[in-house]
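fyi for ur records
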Amino acid sequence: MRSIATGVVVGLDVGGTATNATVVDESGRFLVDRLVETPSCVLDGPAAALDALTRSVDVVLELTGNDRGAVRAVGLDTPGPSSAEGVLSAKGATNFALPEWYGFDIRTALEQRLDLPVVYNNDGNAAALYAHVVHFGADSARRSSISAIVGTGLGGGVIESGQVVKGATGMAGELGHVHIPMHGLLADGQPVPACNCGFSGDVESVASLTGIMKNLLPYWLTRYPDHELATLPIKQAAKLVRGLGERGDPLARAIFEQQAAALGRLFTIAANFTDPHAYFVGGGVVEAAPDFRDWFLDRVREHTHLREEQAKATTFALVPDLDMAGARGAALAALAPWVV
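which gave:
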């Protein structure tokens, strides 16, 4: 990465309860090697959240021995849906459910509060950018990638020539709501899964914690009626599935096999309209035991149907440093405009 005018860039990854902050210097070196979390206060509304974001900036700057005068720009990410310019959806966004947030221009508001340039991405795009840059390094600007990040929902991003593809309204890369074929993915008698967005049979309806809770686990418990999870409330049970999957539990492995198949079908579709150099998977499976996450990534790869030429040219990998990927990706996006 080329140098910028002497200074640093701050990255902010805003969640429902906490904001993670990082700092990157003019060479692209991160000055923070761990989570630096402060309360996000988004549940208290915009005024409280902007105060909290300002505190996050000051905390991470103090930690790295910098002051506001050294900051050239701030990278900001939040969960979507939102516009490319950082205006939250008119119906609110994930973790931004209060009416005061509807249609709120969080990027401009923070820019005015800090009197610094602010560059906005949604959290999936930011993590996707970080995965891309870490994987390709100096070749980032000549490579493309797709990232799918499995969490409560399914986020992700599309990177082309090292740049986040945002689209006309900022909603490019909403991979969770891509419809995928269900034939051969669902078991006998398994209902077509429904998504919270109102779609049926999209990727998020299968490959997400919500998909496990609403769709997959209720079905598989009918196939394993004596399973230990059958006695628990479904929300509590859904959170235990990954741990059971790590231990090879047949019910849990059946669920994750379906999730891997869903991601493979998503990547198969992506192969035919973006033909990327790499496919990245992130989320809870990245934070799992190495044997399990390797098994899961292998299953995603096996469910992705590529032409021979594509298979030779592409790689499959996990999103690194997932807890820090959002803040770091946000910082890299804000660093780019200052490159000389």
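The domain at 130-321 is CATH 3.30.420.40 (Nucleotidyltransferase; domain 5). thats all i got for now
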